[in-house]
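Quick one: structure tokens for this chain, please?
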Amino acid sequence: MSIETLAFIALAALVVIIFLMVYIRDVEVNKKLLIYEKSIEELNYQNHVLNKTLGELTSHKEPAFDAKAIESKILGQVKEEIHQSVFPLISSLKDVEKIMQNFRDEQSGRIDRLESRTKEMSFASSSPSSSNEKVIVSQYAKGRSEAEIAKDLRIGIGEVDLVLKLANLK
């Protein structure tokens, strides 16, 4: 066998391989084209059905709607919704206002009673402090120190000091 024969056989094998590759590629492309063709046919069918439905809808003309009637119907529904939802809220708010007013009245009455009690207590407690003041002044006049006076009366030294300053003894 010569080289020319081998080259010719190799070339023939190469041509056969190329032919097989082209054939395989052609088969794959044909499969894809079949899929695309089926999709296009399905879309055409759906388009036909939609056109038919649209034609039927346009042939059955609906009577024209009355805008005023729809507007009045919507207005009635809105009013009914307001009556059902807003008016109960308003009545609830009025009830809350009444409760708050009663609470305010009750609290102002309590405050008035507390103020009158504190006035009564201030009149009653003024005499012990005045008696303490007299004792502080007399003890200081006898020569006792502020600390001793505070200890005996069980009050603070600052209070003893204040009473003495108010009495102009210090």
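Residues 49 and 55 are 10 Å apart (CA to CA).
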